[in-house]
Design a protein that fits this description.
about 160 residues, alpha+beta, two-stranded antiparallel ribbon, 6 strands, disordered C terminus
């Protein structure tokens, strides 16, 4: 099962990560949750006053964002690299021709590097975010909403 999407005019598709890869990704992101939740809660309160959450997050000042930035900086390099590699190894890039679309892997697991020289950091992180949202989307909201039948591990303000 894969889904197709576009970034900067280029077609991509991502297949579902294995359950073990999903667990690895979730474990690597766990240290960020403690820093991200307060930002999300601040943004949700701000958005309730007259905006959207994404805009509210972007309007936070540097001091408010520093705990998340520090948590990202504290992630071990090997774990960060493995997280990016696992996510990107599930992504393919499409090239359209008169004969149709051909798909090529974005990440070379044997070379442990991107297959395309034009993949910049922002595109790679956007691809990783897409995979995380797609594969952990049912898990991460459960932490906040309690949709697994419990109260949720983290509560955000009701809007």
């Amino acid at each position: 099962m894969s889904d197709e999407f576009e970034i900067n005019g280029i077609q991509y598709r991502a297949r579902k990560l294995s359950a073990m890869d999903q667990l690895f990704v979730a474990r690597q992101l766990t240290p960020l949750i403690g820093s991200f939740v307060p930002l999300l809660q601040m943004a949700a309160r701000e958005a309730a006053v007259g905006g959207n959450v994404a805009g509210a997050i972007l309007s936070l000042d540097v001091a408010q964002v520093m705990p998340l930035a520090q948590a990202i900086a504290d992630l071990p390099e090997k774990n960060t690299n493995d997280l990016i590699a696992r996510c990107l190894s599930s992504v393919q890039r499409g090239t359209t021709s008169p004969a149709g679309t051909t798909w090529a892997s974005v990440w070379s697991t044997s070379a442990n590097r991107p297959m395309f020289e034009d993949l910049d950091l922002m595109t790679m992180l956007t691809l990783v975010a897409h995979v995380v949202r797609k594969d952990l989307g049912n898990f991460i909201p459960a932490l906040f909403s309690g949709s697994t039948g419990g109260a949720g591990l983290f509560q955000t303000p009701t809007l």
